[in-house]
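Data card: per-record layout.
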Amino acid sequence: MSRARSLLTALFCVFCSVTSGAQKPGKEVRLLFTGDILLSRQVRAELERRQESPWKDFENLFREADWVAGNLEGAVGPPEDCLPSAPQDPCFAVPETSVTLLRAARFRAASVENNHASDLGAAGRRQTRRALERQGLLALSYEDSPAFLRFGEITVAIISLSAVRGRDGKRVEIPSIELRRKLRLARRLSNLVMVSVHWGSELIDWPTPEQRRGAEWLIRHGADVIFGHHPHVIQAPECVLGKPVFYSLGNHLFDQKYPASKEGLVADCRIVDGKFRCGGIATRTPPGTSFPRNLGSDPSAEQALSGCEVSVSQSFTAGGFRLRPQASAPGMDRSILVLEAFKEGRLRWKTRPSSLVSLEPGRLAGRNGPELLFALERHRSSLDDEEGLRPYVYALGPAGLIARWRGSALAWPLLDAGLLPGTDDVICALHRRDSFITLRPDSAGTRVAAYRWNGFGFSGLEDTEVVRRCRELFDAPD
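The structure for this 478-residue chain is written out next.
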């Protein structure tokens, strides 16, 4: 065994019995998010040469935090597995032994959504997730977003995405139908919604117009804070629509040598007495090393976000029950959710595991009727042989959910659906342009329709004003 491997193993063993992320005594929850982390190229060489943790200067800070995460650039696997690309595009192949350092430093999660996450293809993505999970870390991916974190009675959701195309050609558009659904589910089932987003232009120290428009859209659709990365330099944080936005946290652990790329910012956010506030901790990487130094509180970030206080939202209640999702854990299938129902402070029941996409309460049977839940779940149907979104209606009983409508389709294949704001009984639906008779999932365009629950199913509404409002809900053209 090499000396470097022995050191990494020893460092992990020192910290393997430490549980970070548990709520500290008192009411404060402290959440940290760093910028870009590289564990290959010259950083790997320095790790092997120095045989010590790059986070020695952050031991106290990370120990005091309830949760620490960052953006991991690259994929776990050997360099020979790098996918072909242009000569100027580096491939960040990460040795699995280096991943143990994240756990040893008390990281609890890492975003795996960036333009280098696919450097080693689909196999590299799987290997990266498995390597993180073996160390007890959450791999924050778009596919499995939102992830749900638990700090005492507080549930925090986090969505991770990359708007920058990688070697596999994949990226997430802002806005997009799927991203809006993820934000809506996160908003419904958590007290606070965080978004980690890879975006912007490299080495540009101001946000692009696309970043600014994207930040406003994310906030309007449910984000409480945005952690941005990719430019490799700091882009000053701002208070946008009353929410803290870190456009770019810069590099955290990286081997770039441009002066601006040696400066970084750690988002330092706290939940205290129902209020959420963020500041920043400045970092600097000295010449001749990739290991960052902790410079303490960043005055400019603190000033920019001083008036940016967010009220933590109330927990989701329906039918007299408080509903919350089970916390995400490494290794679990996060496409399947289980909800816990509490009443008078006691756990009364849990839902069956389901591929829940959306959940909204409403008095679908009329103002004097019981509160029901309108849900979207992802299932394969024998009728169309597609795995798609299916609407469900549930009543809430003393022993659990009672299905009133089991996933039968609406008029056309479904892209999204939800209650029309300001109503309790009108469902707005965004459909594909094809039909169940002739399925063409890739058909261009969409159609919007409105429905009302009739006790046995859904009846279409021809009210032009209601349909117009449904179009606005989905930002759909006329």
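Known properties of this structure: The mean pLDDT is 92. Residues 3-311 form a domain with the Purple Acid Phosphatase; chain A, domain 2 fold (CATH 3.60.21).

See the next section for split statistics.
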